[in-house]
Specification:
There is one protein chain. This protein is of the alpha+beta class. It folds into three domains: 104 residues, Elongation Factor Tu (Ef-tu), domain 3, CATH 2.40.30; 140 residues, Threonyl-trna Synthetase, Chain A, domain 2 (Threonyl-tRNA Synthetase, Chain A, domain 2), CATH 3.30.980; 69 residues. Strands 2-3-7-6-5-8 form a six-stranded antiparallel beta barrel. A four-stranded antiparallel beta sheet has the order 9-10-15-14. Strands 16-17-19-18 form a four-stranded mixed beta sheet, covered by helices on one side. A hairpin with a 4-residue loop joins β9 and β10. α6 runs parallel beside α7. It is elongated, with a radius of gyration of 34 Å. It starts with a strand and ends with a strand. About 2% of the residues have low confidence. The site of zinc ion (ZN) has 6 residues, from α2.
């Protein structure tokens, strides 16, 4: 069994361990250490990444560097981490000798960001459970956002209240406690994710907000989560899927959206809080101009027809750029003008969907009509 240092201290970024096994695989190497701070994939959360480097190889005096890698080539990248039967496997890009003393460094900004999302999820799920009795039946912490599936409907308005309460839990800067209750104590406890788990159950508690069985590392104080933003809610499998961004992800989202609104506001010469009105106005203006253009085009076609020789019985017209009903309108103008038969050929960028029954001859489409 690998000793799990992330349970002793969720904020441990560096550690020293001994290589116990190293096996070549199709995708690189699989390294087993006696202990690790790398959290493996599990519970809806993807694995930590980071580096290992050799401090000492058995039989070699390798300690003179003070634990600092001498060259970059001594760094071993940890690309994925998986756990099977209590043993943690580190997927690495190069091998390490069994018995080596290695120094581990986890990609801390990524891990801390994940802890922000995961602890935020506990608060939101606890609040939803308390308010509506719904369970979080699916949690996914992805590369860009984090989703929670609840087995009941919650409206966008109701979620705004939940979001506010969740942020209150953040500013209260509460302890995130981890308990390892005995079987007897556990039987007496009320907590989420109550399923039969073999062995020791780990309970994560945020007083007044949530108690949940969970295996993932969390922040120590709710203040570390930063802002909790519920950005989307959609119907999902008889319940809802809620999308959430916490902490630095919420900040990145806010920055991106602010930049977007600023750009739109500059382009439309409108105040930032009035851009949607300005866009609506622009759309209406655009629709009005389109109508004017259609009217002008029809007038133009009418004039063209009036210029035709009045005695001409059969008229054949080639017109590029006709759209929508314009070919039919043009044909009707010709027949109304006293000509007996008319063929309209046109080439249009939007050819295809806009007419009922046009035939196609190479690039041109055509309509043929007569008065009889
Ligand atoms: Zn959890």
């Amino acid at each position: 069994m690998t000793e799990k240092l992330f349970y002793e201290d969720s904020h441990l970024q560096q550690f020293t361990a001994i290589v116990q096994d190293c096996v070549k695989t199709n995708e690189g190497y699989q390294i087993v250490l006696d202990k690790t701070a790398f959290f493996p994939e599990g519970g809806g959360q993807y694995a930590d990444t980071g580096w290992l480097y050799v401090e000492a190889v058995p039989g070699e005096d390798h300690m003179d560097g003070g634990g600092v890698p001498k060259t970059e080539t001594e760094l071993v990248q940890i690309l994925d981490v998986q756990e099977t039967d209590g043993i943690i496997y580190h997927k690495a890009d190069r091998p390490l000798a069994v018995g080596s003393v290695v120094h581990g460094q986890i990609e801390w900004s990524e891990r801390f960001m994940k802890m922000q999302q995961h602890t935020g999820e506990h608060i939101v799920s606890g609040l939803v459970h308390a308010a509506f009795g719904y369970d979080n039946v699916g949690f996914h912490l992805g590369n860009t956002d984090c989703t929670m599936d609840f087995n009941g409907a919650v409206s966008a308005e109701e979620l705004q209240k939940i979001e506010l309460l969740a942020n209150e839990a953040v500013v209260k800067n509460l302890d995130v406690e981890v308990l390892y209750p005995s079987k007897e104590e556990l039987a007496q406890m009320e907590y989420r994710s109550k399923i039969e788990i073999e062995g020791q159950v780990r309970i994560v508690t945020i007083a007044g907000y949530d108690t949940c069985a969970c295996c993932a590392p969390h922040v120590k104080k709710t203040g570390e989560i930063g802002m909790i933003r519920l950005t989307d809610v959609a119907r999902y499998k008889g319940g809802v899927r809620v999308t959430m961004l916490c902490g630095f992800r919420a900040l990145a989202d806010y920055r991106q959206k602010s930049a977007s609104v600023r750009q739109i506001s500059n382009l439309l010469c409108a105040k930032e809080d009035a851009v949607s009105e300005a866009v609506l106005h622009l759309k209406e203006e655009c629709a009005g101009l389109k109508q004017k253009l259609t009217d002008s085009k029809q007038k133009l076609l009418e004039y063209k027809v009036k210029e035709l020789d009045a005695g001409q019985e059969v008229v054949c017209l080639f017109e590029d750029g006709l759209e929508g009903e314009e070919p039919r309108i043009l044909m009707n103008f010709v027949l109304k003008n006293g000509h007996k038969m008319c063929a309209v050929f046109w080439k249009s960028e939007k050819n295809g969907q806009e007419t009922e029954n046009p035939a196609s001859a190479d690039d041109y489409r055509y309509f043929i009509g007569s008065t009889s």
